[in-house]
Amino acid sequence: MGCELFDRKKRRIKLTAAGENLYEKLPLLFTQLQSITEKTQKIATGEISALRFGYSGAAMSSFLPAVIRKMRKSLEQCEYDFIEKTSDQQILDIKNDKLDAAFILYQPEDENLNVIPIRPEKIGLILPEDHPLAAKKTIPLEALKNEKLILFPRSMNPVMYDEIIAHCHKAGFSPNVVREATPRSSAICLVAAGEGIVTIAESYAHSCLQGTTYRPIKQPGPMIRFCCVVKAGRDEQWLKVLNDIIKKDLNYNELAATNV
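Given the sequence above, the corresponding structure tokens read:
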């Protein structure tokens, strides 16, 4: 171990301070090793499933924590690992068997994926609290015609990015996108500094900094069209449980109607 564990300078051999420390920790070490060994064996035999879930930040700040709690309650024999990535990165990891399920920000059309739609979420705005538009309860998109917008990089979610731009075009203008910023926390800091207005998922409304405020966009407007994706052909028990939770608690059709 690179250190002396025993003091042999005298007739009686005794533990050094390092040896005493190791002696105290060994029972816990062996207990942990036994637990790890048992779980590894159960995973190998299928008694325990080791699930890897990918997610977007917007999903984790919205519906995903409740889904995870119910999954843990229903499937106590499962171990979970969670990885935050962009939607496109998660899809690639699903196809390469690096993730078991992914919660992403758009609904891809891909025969290699099983797509489970999840309720859409409205997009809103964070703006300076002294901005004239802050006096409105909801902000129509056309009111942003002469405003400086801060968007996320298009590469992070091309579908969502293009939908925001398309809604602006429907409102009669091309948005003045002054910069693209990520993560969203950095974009909100730019708003606080007076650099523009940022589009944000409704579930991030609580993320306002001092000097900023959140306002919904008047509907119909851009929406985040969440979904859960898994590799086509999978039908394990955990997936059936997950599917049931989504259909029961995150009914897509019912909540999609809120956009009309």
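The helical segments are 17-45, 57-60, 64-74, 87-95, 158-170, 184-192, 237-249, 252-256. Try to locate this feature in the token string yourself.
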